[in-house]
Amino acid sequence: MSTRVAGLTLASPVLVASGCGGTGRELSAYAPLSTYGAFTTRSISRDARPGAGGATLAETPAGLVHATGLPNPGLDVFLATELPWLLTEGARVVVSIVARDLGEYAEVARRLATAPGVSAVEVNLAVPDAAELGVLDAREPFHVGAAVSTVLRELPRGVPVLAKLRPASPALRHRRPRRARRGGGRVRRRRLRGHRHRRGRTHRPAPGCGRRPGRLRPVPRPHHRRAARRRPGPR
Questions:
Q1: Residue 125's closest CA among 109, 140, 103?
Q2: What does each C-alpha distance from 5 to 75, 95, 164, 235 come to in angstroms?
Q3: Per residue in 171-196, pLDDT tens?
Q4: Quick check: pTM over 0.90?
Q5: Cβ distance 93 to 39 under 8 Å?
Q6: What count of other Cβ atoms lies within 10 Å of the Cβ of residue 198?
Q7: Could you tell me where in the chain the CATH 3.20.20.70 domains are found?
Q8: Which of 26, 53, 107, 195 could be 22's S-S partner, Cβ–Cβ 3.0 to 4.6 Å?
Q9: Architecture field, domain 3-53+69-190
Q10: CB-CB neighbours of 54 under 10 Å
């Protein structure tokens, strides 16, 4: 049962979420990694992170509580050991990345652009305690747009970028999804103000209204049915 996600054709609609399959070795004991549509790695940073100390998982009646601290061996070790092993197992690899700022996001994406076997990149902007962990704290739409645009610029055309967002972010909760212009990535963007849809024609806003002209395509709005007017009958 094949499916398409962000321009990728996957052999299965089942994708392993970031961190849920560990490095892949923990999951391979249950089923070959090639049977999944894609395997998303744990979030990889430029430098190695030891993670949180003490207990990181706790079972509760409502589910699982975790605070791992984003442990990972760093980008160099990941590219040298973990990524090649995943490819030999036949996995379709989505690399999740996390960084302290936009410059570090660009550096990590630039390294991944030349790495073989990277099917897509996930930008982890859903860290709940981002400030304490020292990673980019994306609370506003322009934070998300800046991070995703930075990663997109460094990757080859056709490599999708997926934005992992917080489910309870008040500033992003009511935004509509929009396909990114490069690579088929998906990102939540603020709709450009000033667009109107009249008689099947889309009008751009006046200069200075919203974003810079040409950066975003206008968003058409559906037609509204007009009430039929009654013609006066013969007297």
A1: 140
A2: 25, 15, 14, 63
A3: 555 554 444 444 445 544 433 344 44
A4: no
A5: yes
A6: 9
A7: 3-53+69-190
A8: 26
A9: Alpha-Beta Barrel (3.20)
A10: 5
